[in-house]
Write a structure and sequence with these properties.
By secondary structure, the chain is an alpha+beta fold. It is built from 10 helices and 30 strands. Strands 14, 21, 22, 29 and 30 form a 5-stranded antiparallel beta sheet that branches. A hairpin with a 2-residue loop joins strand 2 and strand 3.
Length: 496
């Protein structure tokens, strides 16, 4: 009997392993086919732009529309638009499609996009002299350590993915901000593009007025309410500044109802040098450094496909960041708020760029980065300490892929219980006492479902507490919660 059980277990294990291998092979084959299609379309496009200045003008005009808040030309939307003399974008490509493969490429690449990158040379969609300058075409192959540059249907040259071109170039890639309209891909805050496509989030929809615009500096200057909270409560855990902001409490006035005209705002965020390294995939063990130029990497094995580094800084366009805020509540249901924002690499880092001399083409390399503070201006929710947990969990990721998976996690949270009936009227209870008052805290556990993008860069988790200071001193220095890769400042914003 034991032998039969062992044999049965071995059969089940072997079957499971075979299924996993088959699934991995299918996924690998699908990715290979996709990359090959991007490569073929790039060659085709290079023929068309080399001999058709009207097409170059069309691509520049479409990119400047920034329909997804980047200089992207979304091919499914642009292909049937007239370029010149009654011919569409697709009609022009078909003139150079000797292999009759364009329809098949469209089928394989439903998110096909042509992007005009922003380069250290000053080249971008605004400055491109499309009448005179014929760009190279390069596909966003994602995991190659050498990038091909095509011109007029041929490979003009190749060089290391760590190098940034110093000449006009168009990037052929899949769009990371737009998805096909299926139940699996739509997010709660998605914005419809047309019957077939939607934006991943309204934050990427150029035509939508609801996404907030990032600010060039903090909004706290002149905020008398924040300054009053600092003077009344200080910047230690003994007294909480948010008690003053949300409930009007002071050391001498220890009762007050919730002020619902405030909500937390992601006021400022910084990404460290370690985050830059992770987002650029610079820690791959299969790379070795060029002994003459330490910034240039080469694979130890010529047949090994290694992830590039600096390539993602210019071939992807703007970074797409996803922030999940997990908030437990008294009802045991909890809330998972998801916010997206996009940002140019130059807005979160000062790039130290130098010329790199070679005999192929003018290019640059990034010698280093200096983190910059970015002000995303993203409003969250009111921190109702009676109903919502004392601590919020904040997860930050840089999104690199469309494919998602879900994870389940259980969060244990503390709740304040020092609330009583409002004798002055009103539906909200009154908070009695500073901090947790004289009452005991309660603890609840809630299970959350979180959607995660495959191949994205997880930049870690942060914990925000109601007791965290808002201002650190009378000079209005913000308090940042931190992990090794992200620093973030939450500030209560007055809504009305």
């Amino acid at each position: 009997m034991k032998k039969l059980l062992i044999i049965a277990s071995c059969i089940l294990l072997t079957t499971a392993c075979q299924q996993n291998d088959e699934e991995y092979t299918l996924a690998e084959n699908s990715q290979t086919a996709e990359l090959s299609a991007l490569d073929h379309f790039s060659l085709l496009l290079s023929k068309a732009v080399a001999s058709n200045s009207e097409l170059r003008t069309f691509l520049k005009k479409e990119a400047l529309e920034m329909i997804d808040n980047d200089y992207d030309v979304f091919y499914p939307l642009a292909k049937n638009k007239i370029v010149t003399e009654g011919k569409t974008f697709k009609n022009i490509l078909e003139q150079y499609d000797s292999n009759k493969e364009l329809d098949e490429l469209e089928r394989k690449l439903p998110l096909l996009t042509v992007m005009i990158p922003e380069l250290p040379s000053g080249y971008n969609a605004e400055t491109w002299n499309c009448t005179e300058e014929v760009p190279h075409i390069t596909p966003r192959l994602g995991n190659k350590y050498v990038i091909p540059y095509y011109k007029n249907g041929m490979t003009d040259f190749e060089f290391d993915a760590n190098l940034i071109p110093g000449f006009p170039v168009l990037v052929v890639k899949n769009n990371e901000r737009i998805v096909r309209n299926t139940g699996a891909t739509r997010t709660p805050n998605a914005s419809t593009l047309n019957s077939e496509y939607s934006f991943v989030d309204a934050a990427f929809d150029r035509s939508c007025n609801t996404p907030p615009q990032a600010l060039t500096r903090t909004t706290i200057s002149g905020r008398a309410d924040l300054e009053t909270a600092y003077r009344a409560m200080g910047a230690t855990s003994e007294k909480w500044q948010r008690d003053n902001i949300y409930y009007g409490l002071t050391p001498t006035n220890t009762e007050g109802p919730l002020k619902r005209n405030y909500a937390e705002r992601i006021e400022a965020i910084r990404f460290t040098e370690q985050a830059y390294t992770k987002m650029c995939d610079q820690n791959d063990p299969d790379y070795v450094r060029d002994p003459l130029n330490e910034h240039v990497c080469f694979s130890k094995d010529p047949n090994h496909v290694a992830p590039p580094s600096i390539e993602s800084m210019w071939q992807d366009g703007r970074f797409e960041f996803k922030i999940d805020i997990t908030i437990n509540n008294q009802a045991g249901l909890g809330t998972n708020i998801t916010k997206y924002f996009s940002v140019r690499p130059q807005e979160i880092y000062d790039l130290i760029v130098e010329n790199y001399k070679n005999n192929i083409a003018h290019c640059f390399w990034v010698k280093g980065v200096i983190p910059r503070t970015y002000y995303p201006n993203i409003n969250l929710v009111t921190w109702d300490l009676e109903q919502n947990s004392f601590s919020w969990k904040i997860t930050v990721a840089e999104v690199d892929d469309q494919e998602t998976y879900t994870t389940q996690e259980t969060v244990s949270s503390e709740f304040a219980t020092n609330f009583s009936v409002n004798t002055q009227g009103g539906t909200d209870k009154v908070k009695v006492g500073l901090n947790f008052g004289m009452s005991t805290k309660s603890t609840k556990q809630t299970q959350f479902t979180r959607v995660t993008y495959k191949n994205s860069d997880d930049l870690g988790t942060l914990e925000a507490n109601f007791s965290d200071p808002i201002l650190l001193n009378s000079s209005n220095e913000l308090y940042f919660i931190k992990n090794p890769m992200v620093e973030l400042a939450l500030v209560p914003a007055k809504l009305y």
